[in-house]
């Protein structure tokens, strides 16, 4: 009998973002606005904390849930900033980036046949994990509600198969921040439903006006809510691989085991660096935000001048203009833009079929790169 592999693994595809950025090697002069990671270095004191840990031979395993000192720093950071608290001993697990947090939670709660509702368009990292668990994704279309998930529409999608609903706030790819009224309505509706709530708030520190509101601050839903987070985006630490999951103690016992059998623990020097990030370097995201806001304003105004319809983002470092007026798919648009316009952006269809008709532009790039990128976009659009 020929050797086979898990058909669910067999069905996985290269993520759309990678498909696009992989093509870039063939276009050495192209401007690349595809990547979703800060272009700033990791703060110096954070790097030094990691180096110190290595020099002091703090290079072994930690507790499966992560260093208690880091879990305490996580709790102090969120309770000071957003007014919610998790018990560092029982309700917080340090993971290998938010990606592993997503994987560990879904593998803890999902069984074959479950349904998970995702407001869409949405980050492409959730669907493969849900499907690897044998569960099915159900989309909540947010394109007619300015990318805000409507409680009324969500309620209609909930069935007895629904196991969880996930929110990503601020959003990748739209940069949209959930409004307080939207969240109040969602909480009112969800509090009486037997459905887990996952909230991926990895971009919370990149909120540009007003303060981020966390779903974890609503006590009515805390018994079934998991908050996913990490320092990848806030402190420009994507390569350090530190994320966190916060959730109800009983279930977190199992999340800890799923995480432990996956990877034992997160990298220890990186955990020491993350302690520094959340304590002494806790204000560096605000410094980065000053630059992101300048870039966001520039890109937003240029897109309007070019004639594209776009929602003004208030968080993360993405903007998601519509290209529906040009009568082609987002993949075709992005391919032509790269080949004949010398600019790489991500086709909206990467972020579920509900992203069709949009492109994602990342402004985690310096102003000169953004200026040239937007000039190229304008020139390309004039040829259509
Ligand atoms: C919404 C969202 N969640 C999670 C992640 C993954 O984060 P990490 O690098 O910490 O695994 C990303 C990365 O782009 C993201 O955009």
- Apparent shape: globular
Taking all Cα atoms into account, the compactness measure Rg is 21 Å
Bound molecules: pyridoxal-5'-phosphate
What is the straight-line distance between the termini? 54 Å
For the secondary structure, the number of strands is: 12
What is the residue-mean pLDDT, rounded to a whole number? 96
Q: Give me the CATH superfamily of the largest domain.
A: Type I PLP-dependent aspartate aminotransferase-like (Major domain)
Task: Kindly estimate the percentage of residues that lie in beta strands according to DSSP.
Answer: 5-15%
Structural class computed from helices and strand pairing: alpha/beta
Put simply, the count of helices is 13
Instruction: Tell me the number of structural domains.
Output: 2
Q: Can you identify the CATH class of the largest domain? A: Alpha Beta
Taken in chain order, the helices and strands follow as HHEHHEHEHEHEHEEEHHHEHEEEH
How much helix, percentage-wise, in residues? Answer: 25-40%
The oligomerization state is single chain
In spatial order, strands of the major sheet run 2-8-7-6-5-3-4
CATH architecture term of the largest domain: 3-Layer(aba) Sandwich
| CATH topology label of the largest domain | Aspartate Aminotransferase, domain 2
Low-confidence stretches: none
Largest sheet: 7 strands, mixed
Describe it.
With 384 residues, the protein is an alpha/beta fold. The protein is 40% helix and 13% strand. The chain contains 13 helices and twelve strands. The strands form three sheets. The chain has a seven-stranded mixed beta sheet with strand order 2-8-7-6-5-3-4, sandwiched between helices. The chain has a three-stranded antiparallel beta sheet with strand order 9-12-11. Helix 8 (180-190) links the parallel strand 5 and strand 6. 49% of the residues are buried. The model has no long low-confidence stretch (mean pLDDT 96). Bound molecules: pyridoxal-5'-phosphate. Residues 36, 97-99, 123, 125, 168, 172, 200, 202, 230, 232, 238, 243 line the site of pyridoxal-5'-phosphate.
